[in-house]
Amino acid sequence: MKSFLDHLECTSCRGTFNAEFPHQTCPDCDKVLYPKYDIENARTAFRKESLNTRPHSMWRYREMLPVRNDENIVTLGEGMTPMLKTNQLATFMGSNNLYIKDEGVNPSASFKSRGMSAAVSRAKELGFTKLSVPTAGNAGGALAIYAAAANMEAHIFMPVDAQASNLKESAISGAHLTLVDGLIGDAGKISREMAAKHGLFDLSTLKEPYRVEGKKTMGYEIAEQFGWQVPDAIVYPTGGGTGIVGIWKAFEELETLGWINAKRPRMFCVQAENCAPLVKAFHEGSKTASPWNDAKTMASGLRVPSAIADYLIIDILRESHGGAVTVSDEEMLAGMKTVASLEGVFMCPEGAATAVAAQKLLSDGTLSDQDSVILLNTGSGLKYLDLLEQSPI
Ligand SMILES: Cc1ncc(COP(=O)(O)O)c(C=O)c1O
Ligand SMILES: [Zn+2]
Predict the structure, then answer these.
(1) Strand order in the sheet with 33-37
(2) 303 within some domain
(3) Does residue 237 line the site of ligand 1, with CB under 6 A?
(4) Ligand 1 near 323 CB (within 6 A)
(5) Which pLDDT value is given to residue 392?
(6) 129-150 per-position pLDDT tens digit
(7) Which of 26, 72, 217, 384 is the S-S candidate for 10 at Cβ 3.0 to 4.6 Å?
(8) Is the residue at 164 inside a domain?
(9) Residue minimizing CA distance to atom 6 of ligand 1
(10) How far is the C-alpha of 381 from the C-alpha of 241, rounded, in Å?
């Protein structure tokens, strides 16, 4: 099996670049680069029937992932997570068609494993041995385990108040951990400085072209799990937005492959009430988002004051006739309890935010009880036990 990776293309100026060179953002305009595939040729070589005998992981979509040589794939079994049709939760929320895609069962207990499996594999293939990443928390834990599995060095820059689970996971996997008195943006500055100084390859999300390729496999799986159709709506907890843009990219690729039709789900972005730059920009009708001052939320994955892919995310929300919703920390905590007690899924606060948001969208009539709706639970609540100690429920 081979990868049909062809080149990198800038999502803004459309410049094209050689994928065998380790690019980060666009050399011409500093915007996000996307890997592009030779889908014309992939159409004949890669058929959906071939998936029947493939591994039950995100690497089942091997041809549309960016690693040339199988030997470079660093995998811990990430992906192909359950698509759960909800029962009591659906009734409670007034829906007949409500699903949870449960990313909490991934290695490292979050969807960040997908991006790191792809990025670490490709970095290995391009000859790097030392990696760095700024993180709100979960991406750091994920890089630590993939770097360990690949026998590579990981340098992780994480806010000092990130969940203990990620600090411990990084430490036990032998990563070099720097705790930063600030947010992910501050960690990013230090991470890139250290990368330049010490020859590390920086894997800041969407400032490196391959993490999004791992995340896009959520879109491939959603289509496969729905019998090569897409649902009516996807509700996604958005920080940097790699997941939402990745899922959208997947649907475009799948349509070009001829595996799905032109229908797209309505995409809904959920952010925290006190860190909602994308929701604000969407409702103001802007094309880009201004950085959020004084970002505060217990959902570390949503504590992202500014996203490099703002222009892509906002475009997707508009093009898909979706929307953008905020949820407070109190609502997230209550949502965690509702989902766990009614459905048996112990969601992370980011995932619970999608349940609360969907309830708002169902009760104000934006979504109907017949719409098929997916809540993206991006991680396990088990990664957030310290938070529950602070706010017992
Ligand atoms: C659990 C969780 N959910 C959601 C997000 C936001 O992800 P994205 O960058 O895809 O918007 C993060 C990012 O840190 C996260 O850890
Ligand atoms: Zn460009």
Answers:
(1) 16-17, 5-10, 33-37
(2) yes
(3) yes
(4) no
(5) 63
(6) 999 999 989 999 999 999 999 9
(7) 26
(8) no
(9) 239
(10) 20
Specify the number of domains making up the chain.
1
Q: Which of 207, 376, 377, 378 to mutate to test the pocket of ligand 1 (most atoms within 8 A of CB)?
A: 378
By C-alpha distance, which of 132, 174, 138 is closest to 157? 132
pLDDT, average across residues 81-100: 98
Ligand nearest the Cα atom of residue 307: 1
Q: Is residue 143 part of a domain?
A: no
Instruction: Name the E strands within the chain.
Output: 5-10, 16-17, 33-37, 83-85, 98-102, 130-134, 153-159, 176-180, 201-202, 233-237, 266-272, 323-327, 373-377
| Single-letter code of the amino acid located at 27 | P
Determine the residue of 302, 317, 327, 383 to mutate for testing ligand 1's pocket, defined as the one with the most ligand atoms within 8 A of the Cβ atom: 302
Closest ligand 1 atom number to CA of residue 243: 10
User: CA 367 to CA 168: how far, in whole Å?
Assistant: 40
Give domain status of residue 309, yes or no: yes
Query: For residue 191, what are its two tokens?
Result: 């991470």
pLDDT level of residue 387 (50, 70, 90 thresholds)? confident
* 173 Cβ closer than 6 Å to some ligand 1 atom: no
Residues 93-109: tens digit of each pLDDT: 999 999 999 999 999 99
CATH of the domain at 217: 3.40.50.1100
Per-residue model confidence as pLDDT tens digits over 258-313: 999 999 999 999 999 999 999 999 999 999 999 999 999 999 999 999 999 999 99
Query: In this predicted structure, what is the pLDDT of residue 393?
Result: 64
Question: Containing domain of residue 356, as a range?
Answer: 83-107+213-390
What is the four-CA torsion angle of 174, 176, 179, 185, rounded to 10 degrees? -120
* Span 237-244, average pLDDT: 97
